[in-house]
């Protein structure tokens, strides 16, 4: 029994050694063909970007440079480095053999300003994914989301459902030229439980107040645009629209 046990143990050790040798051999062959092959050194690092980003910053943040081996790079690590920059929304990397690396970086775009518990004087900005961006020194005309008691920190994302609804409303309006022409959002106040208090720009000194429900957003916005369009054609200035009632006739008041 002892002799048989020793024989089995030796056989297992021999098999383990063979497996380790095969794996090491494949790793060596792989390194010679790819990781240590100068044919795959980056000669063309092609970086494209949007917004106010620039190539120098992307090189610094990612650590990429010419001369690196295409197969030694960890795409996951490079993406993590770039995505840790709060201004960056997405990253795409692609190898073009034998010696080109394509890097596409997309900057976050603010869709609204947002006031939180401590951001009323200088509202922060927020993108379509709810990611908080630093305030802009120069005032812009983005819609203002307000009426929430949240601590907003640049670099963090807001998970509040009301904020998500407000961003969704802004996105729906921006996705349609018809809605953009008539539903000109100025602010979305989330302090009411039954509706979102929206303000639209109208004629000078005649803003439009809209009671917007938190459901059926696209049909309600299309109905609102139709009301504003018809009123404009009639030469009337809309003062208030109540879209919270689930009926064919929408209450509208005029100046």
Strand-helix topology:
Blueprint: H1 2-35, E1 44-49, H2 55-62, H3 75-83, E2 88-96, E3 100-107, E4 110-114, E5 124-127, E6 132-133, E7 144-146, H4 161-174, H5 177-182, E8 185-189, E9 196-203, E10 206-212, H6 217-233, E11 238-242, E12 252-254
Parallel strand pairs: 1-3, 4-7, 7-8, 10-11
Antiparallel strand pairs: 2-3, 4-5, 5-6, 8-9, 9-10, 11-12
The global form is: elongated
Report the radius of gyration as a whole number of Å: 29 Å
Helix content: 25-40%
CATH uppermost class of the largest domain: Alpha Beta
Q: State mean pLDDT (0 to 100 scale).
A: 89
Unreliable sequence segments: none
- What structural class do you assign from the helix and strand content? alpha/beta
CATH architecture of the largest domain: 3-Layer(aba) Sandwich
**Overall tally of structural domains:** 2
Count of beta strands: 12
Query: What is the CATH T-level topology of the largest domain?
Result: Rossmann fold
Separation of termini? 103 Å
The ordered string of helix (H) and strand (E) elements is: HEHHEEEEEEHHEEEHEE
Query: What is the fourth-level CATH superfamily of the largest domain?
Result: Cell division protein FtsQ/DivIB
